[in-house]
Amino acid sequence: MNDKQLQKDILAELDWEPFVNPAHIGVSVDHGVVTLTGHVASFAEKHAAAEAVRRVRGVRALVQDMHVQLTDPLWPDDADIATAAVARLSWRTGIPAEAIKVSVENGGVMLTGQVENHGQREIAAAEVRDIPGVRMVVNALTLRPAVVSPTDVQQRIEAALRRNALIDAGQVAVMVADGVVTLTGTVHSLYEREAAAWAAWSAPGTREVLNELAVAGD
Hints:
By secondary structure, this protein is α/β, with parallel strands linked by helices. Helix content is 36%, strand content 28%. The chain folds into three domains: 3-68, 2-Layer Sandwich (Histidine-containing Protein, Chain: A); 78-143, Histidine-containing Protein, Chain: A, CATH 3.30.1340.30; 150-215, Histidine-containing Protein, Chain: A (2-Layer Sandwich). It has helices at residues 3-16, 43-54, 78-91, 118-129, 150-163, 190-202; strands at residues 25-30, 33-40, 61-64, 67-68, 100-105, 108-115, 136-139, 142-143, 172-177, 180-187, 208-211, 214-215. It starts with a helix and ends with a strand.
């Protein structure tokens, strides 16, 4: 697929995404590397735009140069954002809210502490991402160590890859050493690449994922 056609497909996907207003988003493509520029009204919209681009076949990498432009003068201040973040984390089941620390500065939210797995880490970030006034989220949560053999971790990840309809598991090689999972091979899209990484992160005993999967060009 050439860059011009890929740009058209991305613009169409952004227009299709109900949580994105593409009017102020610029899209440029260079050999499958997509750069988004312009501004959006919230961090949640910025995230939704990035997810929409990752779904498009032919995208090999994504650079986000968009910024969040808050237009409402009554947006919550940092104290309001921090209060809302703590409340949302406390209400959300399945995550150890008491182990998560929240700090806010100029609309930027940082999460620190330890959680059990990558799923909890991502859920915590998702809970604070769409709070009004949030400009960015820095997810510095770490995972508690788990005693699992490298062979068991590898087998669990390989099984998860085979179950996932989005992933061609035969093209992905998994290596595990001291909790560090390395993925190599070739996938068909950036979305598939990230789905493989998610599968690797979800295995108990994974503490780091080195995603070396290449995205094949059309």
